[in-house]
Amino acid sequence: DIRGLSVRRAAEAFFTDARARIVAHGYVLMLEDHLQIWLLSDDPQRLLKHLDRYIISEDVKLHLPVNCDSFAVNAAGLSSLPGLPALVAGNCGSITDLDGSVTGMLASWSGQLLIHFCGAAAAIAQLRQSADLQPRLLSEFNLQQYRIAERYPIIGTDLSIDHMAPEADRNAQAICYTKGCYLGQEPIARIDALGHINRALRLVRLSFIKSEASDAEVDPATVAAASVGAELLLDDGTAAATLTSATAADNEVWGLAVLRLAALSQISRARLVDGRILSVAIP
Hints:
Layout: E1 9-16, E2 22-30, E3 35-39, H1 44-53, E4 68-74, E5 92-95, E6 102-109, E7 112-120, H2 121-128, H3 140-150, H4 171-174, H5 185-194, E8 199-208, H6 220-225, E9 231-234, E10 239-242, E11 245-249, E12 252-260, E13 267-271, E14 277-281
Antiparallel strand pairs: 1-2, 2-3, 4-7, 5-6, 6-7, 8-12, 8-14, 9-10, 9-13, 11-12, 13-14
């Protein structure tokens, strides 16, 4: 409910077509004089074209910034940060004491409070050197671990226009069932009334099958890099889905896949692209 957002608050949201298929997904940030939309996607033009179609008489201008950068930090133990309101998930704000424009937003991923920063590349580089933030910087690897554990999808990688918003299974985080009319509302309301979907984005945990023939240590990070595209197999050996994202975590490989819910109990193995077989657990 964007109209219901107060200034310096953010909401996770889907942008859908009339059939409730996902055009884009991310965060909408309400700042003092404009909205920012943050996406994990390499195709922002798709959303720009979608929004532009529906600007008829409103006084709205769409702007795609250039030369931007971003990073994230773990907010554990951080009491405050100039320019940001209280460290509570969903709060956002501008940091104005930099030579450029930077926006910070707090989000809870997998139970951990993170601060995501985005803005002009020079200002981001300056902020990244802050003594308060340096010990808390998250690498791309760390961020991928949090993202996959949170089941936060990348559109174009984990989900696409072929998927309906409820199939991301982030209804509580990103779908409002009390707001007014919007594109895709009827199919989404119908799914809510029926109470179920047939497939959903799920966290998949892969572990190594012990073999007496091989006692060599296996590096989970190396296996994770080779796991994107792995086939998840039913008990009869039939491929049921494909792993779309993967990372190493807790000496396992964690990944994301869209799975048929009726078949969850029948998926027990994964076949990597190099032919190796791993055991599967779906939390």
